[in-house]
Design goal:
By secondary structure, the chain is mainly alpha-helical. It is built from 15 helices and 5 strands. Strands 1-2-3 form a 3-stranded antiparallel β-sheet, with helices on one face. The protein has a two-stranded antiparallel sheet with strand order 4-5. A hairpin with a 5-residue loop joins strand 1 and strand 2. It comes from Champsocephalus gunnari (Mackerel icefish).
């Protein structure tokens, strides 16, 4: 279950093993692993300083946190360390280490000394990436190899749904989880029932409507190359021969061909798809790309295009608009001067 020290503390109280397992299940497995890693760092630090990690006085904990500040760690990192210590430390007079008055005052001071800054400028250009997805090697979709078909599908799904990678990773091709409407006009995606989301009750079904066909100059209609329903249906049809599991996204490479991919690999796919969309247009991909950026960029553009904040929070599984405003909202409404001028000229020429 992770967090062995916490297990020992609960076992000392005399709780049965099943009760301890239920208590430790209150945290997601990824959170337990993260806390266990941070606690081991604190244990090693205490060992070097000659202290007992799970029974040390509050001054030792504060000294460790101050050491993190001196090493220029971010405030969010310090909070994770404190949460791990609070989970494994015996506490003080019936309260956890994080509830001690001195620790509370210390964290308030740390927050002032380490202000949290967040860039409001998007890390990558959504228009550039979407344009790249309509070009080689992503199109034509029917002739694309499994790698580029997978990259395009997962990126379009991430942008359309604004879900976490873990939520997308839990999607299944089982008929009870993936349902296409007649004519592939829409698709309803549900996670595997065994999946436990990071926030309990936050993983809602993904309902995607197909893009209408585009009217070309000849008067004929052609499929929209950015339609996620089209990409998903093509991916599922092409992956039938490889599939060894009901998980939606599978590995195409040996020796794991046909087996489910991990959440980390799915994140790599999203980043690779964004970078490849740039390089396919002979553009330099931005540095520091990360998969989670799709949530902020997709929801910010939706807000800019007139989608209500309530609908955005419901789609992204945010309980409060404050989460979106504080951590995800980006400024996509202010193009640079050159683009504004060129956009005006292009629109004037097309009108003529």
């Amino acid at each position: 279950m992770g967090l062995t020290r916490e297990w020992y503390n609960l076992n000392t109280v005399g709780l049965p093993q099943k009760v301890i397992n239920t208590i430790q299940s209150a945290r997601a497995s990824s959170t337990r692993s993260l806390y266990d890693c941070k606690w081991r760092v604190f244990e090693e630090w205490c060992l070097q300083e000659g202290h007992i990690s799970f029974q040390c006085p509050v001054g030792v904990i504060l000294s460790f946190l101050q050491d993190l500040i001196d090493k220029h760690r971010a405030f969010s990192t310090i909070k994770v360390y404190l949460a791990a210590i609070a989970a494994c430390h015996v506490g003080f007079e019936g309260k956890t280490a994080s509830q001690h008055p001195l620790v509370c005052h210390f964290m308030k001071g740390a927050r002032r000394l380490l202000p949290v800054s967040r860039s409001l400028v998007p890390l990558w250009d959504l228009a550039v990436v979407l344009n790249g997805l309509k070009m080689t090697p992503f199109e034509p979709l029917e002739g694309a190899d499994m790698k580029h078909l997978s990259l395009k599908t997962v990126l379009l799904l991430a942008l359309e749904s604004a879900k976490r990678v873990s939520d997308i990773h839990a999607l299944s091709v089982h008929p009870s989880c993936t349902q296409f409407a007649p004519g592939q006009t829409r698709v309803l995606l549900k996670p595997n029932p065994a999946f436990t989301p990071k926030v309990v009750g936050s993983c809602t079904p993904i309902d995607i409507e197909a893009f209408p066909p585009q009217l070309v100059f000849s008067g004929e209609q052609q499929q929209d190359l950015l339609c996620p329903v089209r990409a998903l249906h093509t991916y599922m049809d092409r992956s039938k021969e490889l599939r060894l599991n009901d998980q939606l996204f599978l590995s195409w490479a040996k020796p794991h061909k046909g087996k489910p991919v991990t959440k980390q690999r799915l994140s790599h796919w999203i980043v690779e798809a964004i970078a490849l969309a740039y390089t396919s247009q002979n553009l330099q991909a931005p540095s520091g790309l990360w998969a989670h950026s799709t949530r902020g960029l997709a929801t910010s553009w939706a807000l800019f295009k007139g989608v209500s904040i309530q609908d955005i929070c419901a789609a992204a599984s945010w309980s409060s608009p404050l989460t979106f405003v504080r951590f995800y909202r980006l400024d996509g409404s202010a193009p640079n001067v050159a683009r504004a001028v060129l956009g005006t000229l292009l629109s004037r020429d097309s009108t003529c």
